Amino acid sequence: MDDVRRIVDAFDYCVPVRREERMLVVQLEHANLLPHLDELARIEAIDCVFIGPVDLSKSTGPRGRYDLPQVAPAIDHAIEALRGRGMPVGMLVKPGDVEPWVRRGVSFLYAHANDCINLGAAALRAQTEAV
Is the pTM higher than 0.85? Predict the structure, then answer.
């Protein structure tokens, strides 16, 4: 959590004026932050917590496979805990899995450029609006 507080302090230092026009998104990439989700959600300067599923999975063992049984519950728990405290949650989306993430409460969607190109912006938008 010390790293998170340093990020918030640096952001506030760099953006002292018109803060309300800026957005601070922090990335949850390591399992060591999972026990601190309540504290993370209470930091007012943070506008969204983006779950980095590949890196999070690396910290739990299975080298980038976030669909495995030992990683998926951690992601589900993080989404539920953060959303339950009113914190918007972000997630990496792939073709075909946008709707399930949105149904689970993820509101900040990120697709790698190559996936975005393959999907097309209109198709990605249609998937999010369908939910």
Answer: no
